[in-house]
Amino acid sequence: MGEVKLIGVDASFPCARIIWALKLKGVEYEFIEEDLLNKSSLLLKTNPVHKKVPVLIHGTNPIAESLVILEYIDEVWKTCPLLPVDPYERSVARFWAKFVDEKCVPSVWEAARLEGDKKEAAIVSAKQTLQLVEKQIEGKRFFGGEQLGYLDIVMGWMCLWLGAMEEAGGMKLLDSEEFPSLCEWILNFTMVPTIHESLPPKQNVVKYFQFGLNYMRSLAAPNAQN
Ligand SMILES: N[C@@H](CCC(=O)N[C@@H](CS)C(=O)NCC(=O)O)C(=O)O
């Protein structure tokens, strides 16, 4: 099958997605910790377009972008299938995965980054995107149905990283009154041993986000519009 290596950072949720998928499928891999402040020649060579982690290296083939990597893993290692079998259900899972990465995560980041009145408006907007996800999990144990699947792994950032973003950004988005189904799903998801055992310590993630937020605020500072 070829050797499997994962270039990543411990506190990153796109990297956690790949770790979960590999572990669920029982794939042995070597984790190569990346220094994002001093990117390695291996990262620059294997992901020259985005220069971001995660990158999966299978044999000599590099694969970048966590959603792409998840699909690759699911196609190559057939045990514990992640994507639904039905083509329509697959398309629905992909739709929500794209929504989460393009709308949900950025809106939560924006709410964390902003301050003052703009923060309040950004919190309302972030909650609106989360409400759309809440509707998707209502009455279900997992996004994948009775079994954890691709979309659960994609949404997995909510089980720890969302709370860390709340802490780093001084805000509260998710509570069990407004988001009962998402909060219950977080418990179900976190109770799966493979997930639970491979979560990084929350304080490491909070520090990682604090660093990121300070950096983003420093970039926005000279611009009066932000
Ligand atoms: N869309 C990418 C996002 C990956 C991403 O944002 N990675 C971050 C770490 S969490 C990174 O490598 N940042 C380095 C940089 O932006 O220079 C994916 O899903 O893989």
From TrEMBL:
Keyword list, A-Z: Cytoplasm, Transferase
GO molecular function, one term: glutathione transferase activity
GO BP, sorted A to Z: glutathione metabolic process
Reaction catalysed by this enzyme: RX + glutathione = an S-substituted glutathione + a halide anion + H(+)
Main location: cytoplasm
Function text: Is involved in the conjugation of reduced glutathione to a wide number of exogenous and endogenous hydrophobic electrophiles.
Domain annotation GST C-terminal: ranges: 86-208
Annotated EC: 2.5.1.18
Presence of the UniProt keyword Protein transport in the record: no
UniProt family annotation: Belongs to the GST superfamily. HSP26 family.
Name the UniProt record assigns to this protein: Glutathione S-transferase
Source species: Erythranthe guttata (Yellow monkey flower)
GO cellular component: cytoplasm
Domain GST N-terminal: 2-81
Keyword hit for Glycoprotein: no
Cellular location(s): Cytoplasm, Cytosol
Pfam families hit by this protein: DUF7962 (PF25907), GST_N (PF02798)
Gene3D superfamilies registered for this protein in UniProt: 1.20.1050.10, Glutaredoxin
